[in-house]
Amino acid sequence: MSDHLTVVNHPLVQHKLTLMREKSTSTAVFRQLLREISHLLAYEVTRDLPMTTTNIDTPLVEMDAPTLKGKKLALISILRAGNGLLDGVMDLIPSARVGFVGLYRDEETLKPVQYYYKVPSELNSRVVIAVDPMLATGNSSAAAIDLLKQSGATDIRFLCLLASPEGVALMKDRHPDVPIITAALDERLNEKGYILPGLGDAGDRMFGTK
Ligand code: URA
Prior knowledge:
By secondary structure, the protein is of the alpha/beta class. The chain has six helices and 14 strands.
């Protein structure tokens, strides 16, 4: 992957995203749409995975057939909303290894603080896909990527549903080597750090909390 930002303009993605943005959409429908859209985004984020061939026997002949090359992918969910995207991505890549990064914002320093970190081994030889639906200020996303790099990851992609221009700029500054794949680039952040027009709090909407 080379382009820093990819907006997945597929009609199905855009249609489902509109349904998710609508505030009257129920938790159950939001979850279902998130799962469906995750499949389509997973398709895009894996488009250029390295390939090799393996020799197989079809019922008729032998052939060298394409397969994914290298170690199993690592999917990293940035808690808690990342788990909503993770489920759908795992549907498409069921053998992926999975990790979790938990960060909260210190109210005094406003800096992200790690409260949970468990990732697969040998991140240095895996394609790593970090998932978080909302790239808002970018602070926690950039901090999560810092941690993954400290664990040895070198080939990282960031998958989200919505991105803000502010978040994309921060990620480009801190992690220019990490491509971002998103369903939409929205207009801006509000004073509380929410994406506008956005869809509200992604975690609350997928888990039914408030
Ligand atoms: N996190 C969310 O869930 N929503 C936003 O708009 C911004 C950050």
